[in-house]
Input
Amino acid sequence: METGSERMRLDKWLWVARFFKTRNLAQEAIEGGKVHINGQRSKPGKEVGPGSMVSIRKGEQHWEVEVLGSSKQRRPANEAQQLYRETDASLEAREKAAELRRLAAQDPSLGAHRPSKRDRRQMEQFTERRKR
Output
């Protein structure tokens, strides 16, 4: 795979690097403020190139990556991963979040029952206090 050093549209790069399944989904995420370049909100047509820092939030996952290159076409995932390098802090945070999700899924007491009448009253009181 040739990783070019030329600049590429942000939406296309996100699609080629396999962060989104379609360019349309990438465009929607960018327009929704889920993707930032060098700490600033951007538009789908903004060009990224080697050295650009891209922050991507997709659901519960968050990536901080440095752009290393681009490709003219979408390639398999193992080749697409060569287009960027994830920061150590981002990788560590994602691993911690994944571990917490695994632990929460194993604990049957979390979310295993419907709220009781007492629980609902407490939630209503809490939300009423927050409104004031």
Q: What stands out?
A: The mean pLDDT is 89.
